[in-house]
Amino acid sequence: MATAGLLLAAGAGRRLGMPKALLPYRGRLLVDHAAAVLADAGCRPVVVVLGAQADRIRARTRLPGVVVNDDWATGMGSSLRAGLSALTSGATDATVVTLVDMPGLTPEAVRRVARDATAGSLAVATYGDGRRGHPVLLGRDHWAGVAAAATGDRGARDYLRAQGAAVRLVPCADVADDTDVDLPEQAARLPG
Questions:
Q1: Residue 167, domain extent
Q2: Other Cβ atoms within 10 Å of 23 Cβ, number
């Protein structure tokens, strides 16, 4: 079975002053780059959850499998629920979840986290001193539990913590950078 890719890109980027999906990055939009990372890692299908300025983003991109989260303003949890819901009718055993604001994420990090994925898998990338980050692998058997726990901006965090040792921790600092882009000064340093 294939492992899907799920890109959460629905936020308004309040601290940034614009949706992060619309940031220019290496000759394209950051959302296009992030979706390509999942596709280049072998994720099939790739689902992109949009929300704030979704029509504007769609007009400027050719994204695969777009889902529009009308409740995007309630936080990342609603986007995760919308993306998982969109994947339930497909034939995938698992999905790799990433965020649009991580330009340093690489296909290699996604492949590492997705390695040996099954419907019962849970895995999280780790960086630096073991801090947990993205990408995150969610096996299909966990989607309902993750969706039930995803509220506000919490996403899958609480569900994963509750699973304890069942979550495989995957070191990725040697192949990816987990720095996210939240502020205008960070966006200004991106290679446009």
A1: 2-176
A2: 21
Q: Which pLDDT tens digit goes with each residue over 70-106?
A: 999 999 999 999 999 999 988 899 999 999 999 999 9
Q: Residues 155, 80, 178, 30: what is their CA dihedral angle, to the nearest 10 degrees?
A: -150
Domain count, the chain: 1
Q: How confident is the model at residue 1 (pLDDT cuts 50, 70, 90)?
A: low
Identity of the amino acid at 190:
L
Query: Which of 120-129, 148-157, 167-176 has the weakest average pLDDT?
Result: 148-157
143 part of a folded domain: yes
SS3 (DSSP) at 102: coil
**Residue 180: closest CA among 43, 13, 3:** 13
Q: What is the C-alpha separation between 79 and 69, in angstroms, rounded?
A: 6
Give pTM, 2 decimals: 0.95
Which residue is it, tokens 């040792």? 165
Q: Do the domain assignments include residue 160?
A: yes
Termini Cα distance of the chain: 36
